[in-house]
Amino acid sequence: MTSDELNILVLEGDNLLGQLMCDMIRMYRIGAPQLSSSEVDACQMMKNHPFDLCIFDINLRGQLCDQAVAEANARAIPVLLLADGDEADQLSTRPARGLVVRKPASEEDIRGAAAQLLQSEPVR
Q1: Tens place of pLDDT per residue across the chain (124 aa)
Q2: By the 8 A CB rule, do 7 and 51 touch?
Q3: Which of 7, 66, 106, 117 is the most exposed place for a label (fewest CB within 10 A)?
Q4: Helix-then-strand count for the chain, H and E
Q5: Cβ neighbours of residue 23 under 8 Å, at least 6 residues apart?
């Protein structure tokens, strides 16, 4: 599977940051990103489309993304969590397969974590 065939869901409450994340994913040819700014929409997107990786900002306008993590777990999608401080410890639902990158994160940190998660993926 080539990187152009990899579908990546980006959940980010700030539209500008979400667009920057999607631009980075395209620029480095990690995959084809789809952006959601709402946890409810992200869960619906996971139900309707197969994703190879999810990148979630843990804190969405003051709410943790537990529901999105649970949906990703139900679909066996690896999750890259972007977290401030100890936010990952506050999640009530842990990713079955996932990594946490502390913010502020560099592009290299995000690319490396995404590559690590995608390499551990079985070929569909």
Answers
A1: 456 689 999 999 999 999 999 999 999 999 999 999 999 999 999 999 999 999 999 998 888 999 999 999 999 999 999 998 777 788 888 899 999 999 888 999 999 999 999 986 544 4
A2: yes
A3: 106
A4: 5, 7
A5: none
